[in-house]
Write a structure and sequence with these properties.
The chain is built from 6 helices and 9 strands. It has one domain. With 203 residues, the chain is of the alpha+beta class. The two termini are 21 Å apart.
Length: 203
């Protein structure tokens, strides 16, 4: 299968949003912001070229997160090895919606799938995975809300790469916010504004 074709498994009625969880994100009419953290080689290239290439493997699954605070929890506020450069990546909303529409949960649940066999078949046919993890507060404590992580691989990963509109290196901002928390001078306005995101399931 070539780069231009997409293996789409459409689940418009029985998709990951059927779990009842909501997606919160920063977005505008056309684009949505997702977060990733990388090493210097990958980050420098992506910031400069608005594409992935140097040091990045298209043979592996990569995970995108629309939640800033979940990214902070995952990367230790940019302190973990290989995750010290935090990027805010704007991609096209229709591509993000395509990912959501075609995502298969990473683990089986009978709330969404009729059987483990059905789930395994869907998982094998889709290049998109989903995990609903507990959302975090500024201290890394879980709160009563779920945050979506979307894993993409194969043809969908090329689709993601082609959909990138802009990339910001927010590492310094992340460090500044973390310092404000440590010094007990944190203000809510320092965080990106994230509101409920409505997915267009017609993609």
């Amino acid at each position: 299968m070539g780069k231009g074709s997409l293996p789409v498994v459409v689940m418009k009625k029985n998709n990951i949003l059927s779990m009842g969880h909501k997606i919160y994100a920063s977005y505008d009419e056309k684009n949505i912001t997702v977060y990733q953290a990388y090493n210097d080689i990958i980050a420098d290239y992506v910031v400069k070229n608005k594409k992935f290439l140097d040091g990045f493997s298209f043979r592996r699954m990569t995970w995108i997160k629309p939640s800033f605070l979940w990214m902070m929890y995952r990367s230790g506020w940019g302190s973990k090895d290989g995750q010290k450069r935090v990027l805010a990546i704007d991609i096209k909303r229709d591509v993000f919606d395509l990912f959501v529409t075609n995502a298969i949960l990473s683990s089986f649940t009978d709330k969404l799938y009729n059987s483990k066999e059905e789930w395994r078949i869907l998982l094998s046919k889709s290049d998109v995975r989903c995990q609903w993890d507990p959302e975090r507060d500024i201290y890394g404590h879980s709160i009563d809300r779920r945050s979506v992580q979307i894993g993409i691989q194969g043809e969908m990963l090329y689709k993601y790469n082609d959909s990138i509109i802009n990339v910001l290196d927010i590492t310094e901002k992340v460090s500044m916010i973390k310092k404000s928390i440590d010094l007990n001078v944190f203000e809510e306005s320092l965080l990106p504004k994230e509101v409920e995101y409505v997915v267009n399931l017609s993609n």
